[in-house]
Amino acid sequence: MKGLLIRNLSKTYFDPYAGAHVTAVRDVSLSVNEGEFVSLVGPSGCGKTTILNMIAGFVPASSGDIVLDGRRISGPGPDRGVVFQSFALFPWKTVLENVAFGPKMRGAGKTERERIAREYLALAGLGNAADRYPNELSGGMQQRVGVARALANEPDILLMDEPFASVDAQTRMTLQEELTRIWQARRPTVIFITHDVNEAIFLAERVIVLSKGRLLAEVDVPLPRPRVWDTLIEDAAFKTLSARVLHLVRSG
Amino acid sequence: MARQVRSPRAGIAFVAPLFVLVLLWAGVVRAFGVDPRIFPGVLDVARAGLDSIRDGSLVMHAAASLLRVAVGTALAILASVPLGVAMGVSPAVSSFLAPLFRFFSVLAGIAWIPIATLWFGYGFGAITFVIFNAVFFVVTYNTLLGVASIPLPLRHAAASLGARRWTMLTEVLLPGALPNIVTGIRTGLGFAWRGLIAAEMIATNVGLGYMLFLARDFYRTEVIVFGMVVIGVLWLLLDRLLLAPLERATIERWGLVRA
Amino acid sequence: MTTLLRLWSFYARRTTRWPGVAAAIPFIALIASWAIVAESAIFPRAFFPGPLEVVRSFGSLVYKGILPDYLEDSVVRLAVGAAAGTALGIPLGLWLGMSPRAYSALWPVLLFFQAIGDIAWLPILLIWFGFGLATMTFVIVYTVLFPVVLNTVLGVRSVPIDLHRAALSLGASRARILWEVVVPGALPNIVTGLRNGLGYGWRALIAAEIIVGTSGIGFLMFDARRAGSVVEILLGMIILGLLWSVVDGWVLVPIERATGQRWGLIAR
User: Fold this and answer.
1) What does pTM read for this prediction?
2) Cβ neighbourhood burial of A96 (10 Å; 0-12, 13-18, 19+)
3) Nearest residue in chain B measured CA to CA from C205
4) Is residue B46 part of a domain?
5) Could you say which of B197, B219, B225 has the minimum Cβ distance to residue C117?
């Protein structure tokens, strides 16, 4: 099967500060088809980041399987690209060098990887920032670099960990619209983590609600694309979905 | 950053590698048949140590060294903190004098040894002078910096709340500068301790440095190694059990004052 | 009062324009006070000479070629020892920073040996190597090693974990992460370690030269003490302070700031 399959995933760990075992993720099963955009939404502590870290391979699962394109996951790798809330850009590399990093690790030569990098920078709307350093850019621009960098490596799945949480509200909406545009152009498989219900619905085709480590509900989002905030904010279907997911999140 | 519960486990984790090192030492010396005049075995050192404890020489030397450090440091702190506060309060004075004190901090303790012995002769006076200087300049400089870097709005706020000189000093200036002061004391003591050992090697006839140097004359390497261990342990105890926690506590408590 | 204020504002305006002047003025004031105290002969002239005598001694030592030679000896020893200490210390620090197991095994050993201090090694070094270059080099390498290792470890650990994870998710192997992420990320701290190491190394050198020396600035002071000549001791101390202040302030600190600021790692 092409795509991501998670079966009975659980994570328990020992918290030295609490002095006890904590179950962050409880028997979660879900699947994401190739080219699908799925949002994972839930309040803080519901386990969504832990699930992402397990899919990314940063943290081992306590039990259960994660299968990507028929292969079991163990450890991090370039098949799963990650976009971080903290941007995680390499401060000593230029924007271009950051985006070219993945291809560089795969052995691409200088001209080749710069070509790839420029292509994805253009896609993200950052064509003229190529020679700047990350600390010269605004938060919004830095995250665009983060997205370009992850995509430039052409991973099988893109994992986004609350990527717009560190950015102000207006920039966030612009970035969300940008992301949908990029996604429609390239159709990567995406798992997007957020605690913002509206953001989850705006971006995704399917919203998965988590609560206290368990999968609470899955909600399809049949809204047409392209999606734009100005129109969607008044759209009746959007408002209904938003209310429904919000109730699920708050009730869980 | 939350504090994890410190347990006896931490203490064991610290001592264990050192214990392994001692075992290795014993093993190597025996396996290679090293000449004890070149490098002593563990048991020789232990025996020399016990002897020095029993005949009171260790206590005599260690006490002399520690006394010098204590007196020199105490005098230096008593002199330097008030001076540093007084200087730090005025931005004009502090920017004028800071370069001077920074320059003299560089001289640490060791550079003062020759002039100390010329001015004070041999013995307690010269060594205490070295220690005093090692601590004095560093602590004054750090106190100065600490006071000068207290955000002005804080001092204005205190003044507008009716703080007089004394209250300002004890409630604003000292706590605000405390992280820097403690860092200065820790650095200064580091200089002082090393200056002490160096000074005792050439300028006196009692103390840990002297004990080492004397043993060298008689090729008594086991006494030298024992002395080195004592010096290391004393500094570890002083720095890790007293100074580092103090520094961390003040920074954690008051470091947030920094703008 | 107003004249003082006017003088002060004149001073403040000039010095903000030329910070070099600001740095020098306090020392000029200090030298002036020194001259006054020496002239007044509160202390016997033999014990407390004035700045002019020190300058004269400086001139004569330079003329005789002694000072340049001693300076060269000291600096070369420090350079060699520091280079060796750094070459040993950075890899060791990188290893300890990256491997938790190596860290818990070796950290206490490192701390203990650092606590012993370089000076305490002199007696046994003298037995092993005598009064020569080997003893001096050992002391300097030993002294430089610890700040370099400690700061390198700190630097490695201060690289945010997200950067490691980003590199892993972009397909980097552990070896490449060391070169592409850890070393650049730790660089500001490594430079600080080098700076501290040089500072401690310099002092250790002087101590070794005072106790054991055959040449060098420390020996200059040791010899002068034997001859009872305060002037040369003061000269030695001034040279020490000046040399370090110049190297540290105008070479090392700018390098430290450049690496950190360039990448926005150290808040300006």
Assistant:
1) 0.84
2) buried
3) B110
4) no
5) B197
Q: Cβ separation of A82 and C185 shorter than 8 Å?
A: no
In this predicted structure, which of C54-68, C98-112, C156-170 has the lowest mean pLDDT? C54-68
The minimal CB distance from B194 to the residues C29, C106, C119 is found for: C119
pLDDT classification of B254: cutoffs 50, 70, 90: low
Q: How far apart are CA C123 and CA C130, in angstroms?
A: 9
CA distance C12 to C10: 6
Mean pLDDT of A97-104: 95
Euclidean distance between the first and the last CA atom of chain C, given in angstroms as a whole number:
37
C111-134 pLDDT, tens digit per residue, is 899 989 888 999 999 988 888 888
Burial class (CB in 10 A: 0-12, 13-18, 19+), B256: exposed
Nearest Cα to A57, choosing from A29, A38, A80, A39? A80
In a domain, B111, yes or no: yes
CA angle A201, A206, A210 (to 5 degrees): 85
ipTM: 0.90
Name, in order, each residue with C-beta under 8 angstroms of A111's C-beta and a sequence gap of 6 or more.
none
- With CA atoms as reference, report the closest residue to A36 among A236, A195, A183, A252: A183
Phi-psi region of C102 (alpha: psi -120 to 50; beta: other; left: phi over 0): alpha
Angle separating helix axes C217-227 and C66-98, nearest 10 degrees: 130
- Determine the straight-line distance between the first and last CA of chain B, rounded to whole angstroms: 19
Q: How many helices (H) and strands (E) does chain A have?
A: 9, 10
- CATH assignment at residue B66: 1.10.3720.10
> What is the DSSP track for C193-224?
HHHHHHHHHHHHHHHHHHHH-SSSHHHHHHHH
Residues 63..102 of C with a Cβ closer than 8 Å to A: which? none
Residues of chain C with CATH 1.10.3720.10: 51-262
- Range of B127's domain? 54-257
Buried b (16+ CB within 10 A) or exposed e, B188-202: bbbbbbbbbbbbbbb
Domain count, chain B: 1
Of B167, B155, B174, B159, nearest to B91 (Cα)? B155
The domain covering C51-262 belongs, at the CATH homologous superfamily level, to MetI-like (1.10.3720.10)
